[in-house]
Amino acid sequence: QKEVEQDPGPLSVPEGAIVSLNCTYSNSAFQYFMWYRQYSRKGPELLMYTYSSGNKEDGRFTAQVDKSSKYISLFIRDSQPSDSATYLCAMSLYNFNKFYFGSGTKLNVKP
Amino acid sequence: DADVTQTPRNRITKTGKRIMLECSQTKGHDRMYWYRQDPGLGLRLIYYSFDVKDINKGEISDGYSVSRQAQAKFSLSLESAIPNQTALYFCATSDLPDSRKGEQFFGPGTRLTVL
User: Fold this and answer.
1) Pick the residue with more confidence: A4 or B40?
2) How many CB atoms lie within 10 A of CB A102?
3) Is the Cβ pair B42, A51 closer than 8 Å?
4) What is the DSSP string of A69-100?
5) Measured between beta carbons, which residues in chain B are less than 8 angstroms from residue A56?
6) Tens-digit pLDDT profile for residues B80-92
7) Helix or strand (DSSP H, E) at B106
8) Beta strands A85-92 and A99-101, pairing class
9) Each residue of A42-86: pLDDT tens digit?
10) For residue B101, pLDDT beyond 70
11) Are strands B54-57 and B42-51 parallel, antiparallel or unpaired?
């Protein structure tokens, strides 16, 4: 069993829709949770990060962590065609020595 | 100029050939990583290094070796390339844990094809 599971999609939504992306994990020792965005033919870039459980909001993006369920989510409000990319969740232990990535969900926002 | 650069950007090689992928960074980070990305499998860690003398295997190190020539340079070698090493390879750096941000900075990737 992989330590981090993520639905690969693809996910196709109309412009303006609310998007929900999710990951589950098996290691209860993970403390830091991140979402990376990867455009085609580019390296991933950090979008959001959260420590432990709770919510974090940044503009149209909200990251949620539920450690009791080992489940994390990224919500995108008012989605735009420029949000079309692959979104990867990532997790780390307290020391950041290694990062564990999900397989990525490909999102397409149609104009 | 890009903070993390990778060379070459694309490479086609034949089975059995030795190939080296190079990574350089100007961010001044001590920690550097090599990942491969395959469709449906996401990013998998090959090797990581916390300084010039500290190199560690990741989850899929078999068939690969690395060299940390300096703080800014981290090379990945395939001693005898095989077709299932065809993938997109990324180098990444990160700051010390003190930042508490968990951010890795990725290079643009090297697309490697082994025939």
Assistant:
1) A4
2) 27
3) no
4) TTEEEEEESS--GGG-EEEEEEEE-TT-S-EE
5) none
6) 999 999 999 999 9
7) strand B104-106
8) antiparallel
9) 999 999 988 888 899 999 999 999 999 999 999 999 999 999 999
10) no
11) antiparallel
Chain B, nearest residue to A33 by Cα: B102
Kindly list the distances between the CA atom of residue A70 and the CA atoms of A40, B2, B50, B63, in Å, as whole numbers in the listed order.
29, 36, 29, 33
Interface with chain A: mutation pick from B35, B104, B110, B111, highest number of A CBs within 10 Å: B104
DSSP codes joined into one string, A18-53: -EEEEEEES-TT--EEEEEEE-TTS--EEEEEEESS
**Which residue of A42, A45, A99 is the best one to mutate when testing the B interface, meaning the one whose CB has the most B CBs within 10 A?**
A99
Is A10 near chain B, with CB under 8 Å?
A: no
Amino acid (one-letter) located at A30: F
Segment B60-78 shows an average pLDDT of 96
Cβ within 8 Å, pair A43-B107: yes
Q: Using an 8 Å Cβ cutoff, are B93 and B29 in contact? A: yes
Dihedral sign (CA B82, B90, A41, A37): positive
Q: Which amino acid is at B110?
A: T
For residue A66, the cross-strand partners are A71
Output the average pLDDT for chain A: 93
The Cα–Cα gap between A54 and A70 comes to: 12
